[in-house]
Amino acid sequence: MVLDLLRHTGVSLRGLAAVLARLAQHWNLPFAMPAFSTIRSWLLRIGCYALRGPLPQDGPWVWLIDHSIQLGSQKLFVILGCPLANVPFGQRNLCLADLRLIALVPMTSSTHVEVDAALQAATARTGVPRLIAADHGSDVKKGIETFQIRHPQTAHVHDVAHYGATVLENRWTRDPRWQEFIQGLQQTNQKLRQTTEAYLLAPTLRVKARFMNVGPLLRFAERVLRLLERPTPNERVGERYGWLRAYREDLTGWLEEYRFVDQTIAHVRRQGVNADTLAAVETAWGPLSDRKGTQMVAGHLRVYARKYGGCAAAGETLVGSTEVLESSFGKLKRLEGEAAREGFTGLVLSVGALTGPLDEDTVRQALEAAPKKQAEGWVRRVLGTTLTWMRRQVLGEAKS
Q1: Last residue of some domain: 283, 309, 335?
Q2: Domain co-membership, 222 together with 344
Q3: What pLDDT sits at residue 394?
Q4: Which pTM value belongs to this model?
Q5: Are the CB atoms for 236 and 197 separated by under 8 Å?
Q6: Tens digit of each residue's pLDDT (9 = 90 or more) over 64-83
Q7: Which of 62, 112, 207, 244 shows the smallest number of beta carbons within 10 Å?
Q8: Domain boundary among 274, 309, 344
């Protein structure tokens, strides 16, 4: 029950322990509820078992790989995967329950040599994978290419969301109208932030991966323009956003380009990539306008579909999205809470508890096979001296 709540709610470890204690008191339950430390121990032990337990090697695997970056000098190189035959193509997107933890490798300075070494070591668990899906970070990309020299049977597919974001970034950052548009929204937000009209604030773009999250901003601007184009427009909206009228044609083009990217991402996430991907995404797009930007974006997306769909053998479909891996990073950072700002903690092992099957037999087997001492030993041996530990040593006695 604890694992299920942690997987499917946004509650923290301490919050979950407090809620369970209150429920037990409210209903006069005749047994004790787990404390925070107990829940943490369960996560580490189950994660340790997931990292060391046997995995089937009787079929080809797909690996999803990436780095999770936190404060400090370390990155965490993560490999999640599942047998290719178990990917639910056409039914739904991959979820964490479909995946198994294959490797967790802290790296102080990630290079293609270290990435290649981590990939090679991971073959001991699943055999050589049929596919590695990843973004195109320089160290990760070159590490995969080095790995492929020894294992040419392994295909590499670029994560479709990162590819689409790169297409939009390359297109829009060179467009002075886009720069003016973003600057106009930022200036308007500054004027609104401390006023009674703060409800008109536009969404802000993230500092990192901003072109992967640009949809809400474009949709906001589109809704504002609709308000401005009414026979009797809202007076306050007109005062603050009247300047948007000059961007009607630009916004129409940006929305169209974003829509093609978004539709391509949605298709690949559910259907994967294969020989039919190009025709399928073109059907999903529908008719293209003759706008130059739209034609350019569509051309890049055709290159993606043709290139990576061509990596699949006849009758084969490959995974083209690492979205579910990004989801695991988000859950990990939520569980670590404030400690995530100070580098990695032992809770990195919880990635193994957040993935894979959740039935009672699996949980019992994991807890029986991985005692607390073994899990804590992995943390000390692999993570070593963490920033959190050093902070406690230096500042702990200063607390009053």
Answers
A1: 309
A2: no
A3: 62
A4: 0.89
A5: yes
A6: 999 876 545 678 899 999 99
A7: 207
A8: 309
